[in-house]
Every structure is written in structure tokens, then in C-alpha cells.
Amino acid sequence: MQALRLFSRNFYLTFAVNFTVYLIYYLTTILCVEYAISELGADIAEAGLAAGIFVFAGFAGRIIAGRLSLSLKNKTILYGGVFLSLISTLLYLMPVPIFVFVLIRFLHGVGFGLASNAASAIAAILFPLKHRGEGLGYYMLSVTLATAAGPFLGLYLAQITSYKNIFTLGMLLTLFALTAIYFIKAKENSSAPKHAGFSFADFFEKSAVPMGLLGAVIGLCYAGVLNFLSPYLKEINSISAGSYFYIVYAIFILLARPFIGRATDQKPHAVMIFLMLAFAVGMFIFSLASSPMMALISAAFIGIGYGSFISSAQAITIKAVQASRIAMATSTFLALFDIGMGAGSYLLGALLSVINYHMLYEILTLLILGCAGIYALFMRKSR
After folding, report:
1. N or C: which end of the chain has fewer CB within 10 A?
2. Fold of 204-383
3. Domain 1-185 belongs in CATH node 1.20.1250.20
4. 252 Cβ contact list (under 8 Å, min separation 6)
5. pLDDT grade, residue 328 (50/70/90)?
6. Which residue has the higher pLDDT, 305 or 317?
7. Is the pLDDT assigned to residue 325 strictly greater than 80?
8. What pLDDT is stored for residue 365 in this prediction?
């Protein structure tokens, strides 16, 4: 009976739409720099701007989605976000100057932010309150699978076909997502206000800020793995582990998710501390890695810890808000998380100019442990 409540037609459709949105994000991002340089004649700085501006546009899209949720239905916002993504993928097919390509990437980023936030809000409302942590855990597998499938598909297709054909595939997949939205019967909050102003509360959910700040720090730590995995494995002569790292990562997310999801509904704060400790163990093993096997063992712990962190943190965040503010809380949490990921790419890169990779991952291990300790102390005082 529990499975029937969690896995409905609306769940599968929302899952498919979100998976597609994230898949196209990773598919285009993994090819963005090379495409800009080889096809548009951009230099490395311009190509980097085209890749990086997506993150900031996605942040803007999430904030806009949160505010629009005060006056529009989440399904309408989802339509708008996926439609912007469709227009963007169509524009990818045109040979344009690099500055226009940057603008297209910005447009796509805004569409991604709108769509991903609205889809998460729709999914959250689908689940009964007592099973929201478990339900969101399963729903966030759409992101996990896209994280693995998008880069793999992009790199594979780049070897056998043209960029035009790849972008055409992206356009067709986005069109599929746009069509699927029509069949989603989204539960909407009739209590939502019909107007919005320009105060802090019209853009951010105050109660979601603490968890969002925690997410920003955890996201910053994970950026150290995401951005520097390949050069680090090369340095420790373990490059052979690179193609398997995210496979192991995804497998352990899949294995842990059912248990973590249920536990989040029963012991949410204990689960959060456990996840951060597991992430810290994985990061520490990663800092000591001297062989492919150690790197893959670290991937398992990082998958268990970080891989379930976002869904559990989001479930805890939205449990504390009114139903009409779920989309706002979602946008606040995810936007702050995105800031941490984006800032981590730059700050950790700068830090690597004065320290080595082993020291970097040791520092990140301590930072994660510090987050776990502060969280435990805060929860104890709250009780």
C-alpha cells in the first residue's frame, strides 16, 4: 500500500520530466567548452564563461520560480521553464557569435532553474507528509541518474556524430518533457496568495535559509570532487578509476536511498548527521587515495553521504513551512546550494594554487565534520 501512495502516474511523469531537464543540462554542459572553441572560434575564457554562466542563470531561475509560485501554479511555471529550455536547444542549432551563445546559455539556465524548482515543488506535494522524506529520496534519483547519464551520453555521442545531431536530440527530448507535463495532474495549493511584492519574503523562505546555508557548505565541499576528480586521479596514477567512480557512486546511492528515505521521515536530524559523517569518511579516504581501489571505496561513502544529503535536507526544510510556501522553500534551499557549488569551483581552484590535492581534501573533511558538529549542537539547543 505504501508503494502505491508513493509511486503514482504523476510521480513517474514528474520524475521523467525532471530527469530530462537535468539530462539536457549535463549533456550540453559537458560539450559546451569544446563546442564553443572548435565550432564558434571562442578562446578558453569565453568558452568558460559560456559554461559557467549557466549556474548563475539557474540560480536566478530558481529565485524567480519561488516568487512566481506565490501567484502562479507550479505546473504553469514548469511549462514556462521547459519551454525556455526548448527554445534554447533550438537556438543551439544555429551558428552564432560567441556572445550570442553565452546569452543562449543564460536563457537555458533560467529555464532549467524554473523547471527544476517547479518539478521539485510538484513532487513534494505529491507525497503524504509522513512519507515525504522517502518519496523525495526516490524522486531525487532522477537527478542522480541524469548526473551519470548526461556526461556519458554527451561524450559518447561526440565521438560518433556531430554537435548538430546531439543538440537535435536534446531538442527532441525537451519536446518530450514539454508534452509529458500536459498529463501531470499536479496538486496545487489553493491557499497560495494571489499577489507578490518585492520584499525578502517574496523571494526567499526565511525558515529555509539555515538548511540552505548548510547545503551551500556541503555543496562547496562536493565541488572539490566534481571539478578536480580527473586531475587528482591522474596525479595519483589512478586514472583508470575515473570511468568507474560515478558508477560506484550511483550504485551506492541506489542501495542506500530506500533506507535513508524512510529513516529521514522517522529520525530526520540523526540521519542528517549520519550522512555528513559518511561524506566526511568518504572525503578522508579520498584524501589518502593512492590506488584505484581506494578511490572507488571513497566513491561508495560519498554516494551514501552526499548522494542522499540533498533529498533529506529538502524534506526537512519543507516540513517546517506552510503548504503554500513549499515552492519558495525549495527555491531558497536549492539556490543557496547552487551558490555553494558555484563558489566552490572558483575558491577551491584558487586554494589549489598554494596547497596540493591531498591537503585540499583533508581540509574539506574537517569542514564537513565541522558542519556535522554545528548541526548536532544546534539541534540539541533547539530541543
Report:
1. N
2. Growth Hormone; Chain: A; (1.20.1250)
3. yes
4. 299, 300, 301, 303, 304, 307
5. confident
6. 305
7. no
8. 96
